[in-house]
């Protein structure tokens, strides 16, 4: 060992653990103790495997076949997350474009949100977005302008996806090196919903995979992952630290059944308007409760109607609140309702 090498080793040993970086190009296989499977509560059909049919680097990547519905979810990842600033770089290849339905492909248990609550990255309205499981807030908010401030995830080839969770709670996101304005908290006019609470994430893991809440399925490949306390960029190299033999098993289990119990139906009728509010509570094993509220309005007067995908409600909305024939006004959050097919 040269004097320089000794000096560098000494510096490395003195670095706080918060600067540690976990990386992998999966050319040494899939070390399932370094990258364990994560499928909280249930797993019905999702599978993960080391795959040599496509890769960003070398021959190997990790393939995630995500099934539909919450229990079709499956992830792999690590709890080796730096304290303070967290930067994640991953090369990701999706098979199918993001739809209007809500999905996640990165999920992070977040101690600041409570037990089993996650900061998620995924899609809705066909664009990339952040979602906070505790209160379902999105970044950007899903108004037409907010939606336009983010971007779709290209499919069929590997994309360089990077994000930064600041120690002050700020978020930054890049796709192929380009900042995504809607996925950045600074100077973002569509971040009001996100910043309405003083939110400073304290993530305890980073997991890559697939989870859908409306039945969407997809196949993703992940390669050249780097998680650390500084940005490596898209050209940053990855050093494989995996030394274990290849693991090529894929896991598919069916363990939990899912029951849906309608709980409340309430109707209010007035002279020219009928409002039906249905609350449906879906309970899955020990998982948290998801409540979906759908409001349907029928009006006989000559009220302006909104077209498909248009906004039809939400805090501060003064435009049409009635959807064109065949569409329902669905509340996506307190700030945005949208005309969608039923
Ligand atoms: Ca690789």
TrEMBL record:
* Xref: Pfam families: CBM_1, Polysacc_lyase-like
Extract the SUPFAM superfamilies matched here.
Cellulose-binding domain
Give the UniProt keywords, A-Z: Signal
Q: Which domain of life is it from?
A: Eukaryota
Q: Name one GO molecular function term.
A: cellulose binding
Provide the protein name: CBM1 domain-containing protein
Residue ranges, annotated region (Disordered): 235-302
């Amino acid at each position: 060992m040269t004097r320089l090498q000794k000096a560098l080793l000494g510096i490395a040993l003195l670095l706080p653990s918060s600067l540690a970086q976990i990386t992998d190009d999966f050319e040494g296989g899939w070390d399932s103790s370094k990258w364990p499977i994560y499928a909280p509560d249930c797993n019905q059909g999702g599978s993960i495997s080391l795959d040599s049919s496509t890769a960003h680097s070398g021959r190997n990547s990790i393939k995630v076949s995500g099934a539909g519905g919450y229990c079709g979810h499956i992830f792999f990842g690590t709890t080796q997350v730096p304290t303070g600033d967290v930067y994640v770089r991953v090369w990701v290849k999706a098979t199918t474009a993001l739809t209007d339905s809500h999905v996640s492909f990165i999920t992070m248990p977040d101690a600041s949100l409570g037990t089993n609550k996650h900061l998620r990255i995924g899609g809705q309205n066909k664009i990339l977005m952040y979602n906070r499981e505790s209160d379902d807030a999105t970044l950007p908010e899903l108004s037409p302008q907010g939606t336009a401030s983010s971007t779709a995830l290209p499919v069929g080839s590997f994309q360089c996806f990077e994000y930064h969770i600041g120690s002050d709670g700020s978020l930054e996101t890049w796709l192929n090196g380009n900042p995504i304005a809607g996925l950045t908290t600074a100077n973002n006019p569509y971040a009001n919903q996100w910043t309405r609470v003083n939110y400073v994430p304290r993530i305890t893991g980073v997991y890559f995979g697939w989870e859908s809440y409306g039945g969407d399925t997809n196949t993703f490949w992940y390669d050249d992952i780097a998680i650390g306390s500084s940005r490596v960029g898209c050209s940053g190299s990855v050093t494989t630290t995996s030394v274990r033999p290849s693991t090529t098993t894929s896991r598919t289990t069916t363990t939990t059944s899912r029951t849906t119990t309608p709980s409340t139906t309430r109707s209010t009728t007035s002279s020219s308007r009928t409002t039906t509010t249905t609350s449906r509570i879906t309970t899955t094993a020990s998982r948290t409760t998801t409540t979906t509220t759908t409001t349907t309005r029928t009006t006989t007067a000559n009220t302006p109607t909104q077209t498909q995908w248009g906004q039809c409600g939400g805090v501060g909305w003064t435009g049409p609140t009635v959807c064109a024939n065949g569409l329902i006004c669905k509340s996506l959050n307190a700030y945005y309702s949208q005309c969608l097919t039923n």
